[in-house]
Amino acid sequence: MQRDFKESGFLYFLGFFMVVFIVVQSLFFLGKAWKRGKEIGLKTETLKRTVLSSVLFTVAPAFAILATVITLANALGLVLPWIRLTVIGNISYETTAAITVLEAFGIRSGVNAPVTDPVVFSTAAWVMTIGSVFPIVIMPFLVKRVQKSVGKVVEKNTKWADAMAAAAFIGIMAAFIARAVNGAGDPEIAGDGAGLFSVTVLVAAMIFMVLFQFLCKRFQLEKLEPFTMPLAMFAAMGVAVVCGRLLPESFLLHEWRY
Known about the structure:
By secondary structure, the protein is mainly alpha-helical.
């Protein structure tokens, strides 16, 4: 009964509606692009290769999106993360927004425990949605100025631009690493705070990421490089499952932050 409001028929209707809308929209613009390509003289083989490469390029982000849905489903149910990530969203924002809302309501277990309060659930839905929609609203007004500013920096010093992009990415990753190492948990919920289990999974993800990148470079598997992050995420999830099955409970539940 506690999960009914999170997986109601209305929410499933919204989910299917969004999926159909996105698919129809994508096919519409694909047809327009194909027609325009023919008008400017592109060969059919070239168009087919472009479509195929685009399809393959979207597979890697799809794995990361699936991992995000699985991560959020325990707390928010399956449908809301499905709806959110069907339109726009990523693991760095959606997970952070959901955890921030839950902590604001005093739920320190984050996305590790099911949400049973409809008010908390609806608040998380609003924050996750508005936070993603707002950039799209302001983009038409500010994107040209931002592009000009970034363009000037790139023209003056390409290395500086690369450093800024890397710093932004490292900052996002650091937020998740910090929670795994020093995140506070609820003393009444075992296994949700930072401890040996969370650090083990974190280290496993880092090792798998380095290993997959090494294999891509060693064997010149450029086409597989976009898949390294989602593969590392799923491999780390596998490590978590194996540890949960094989390791003693004292190890799994040992935490140093409450």
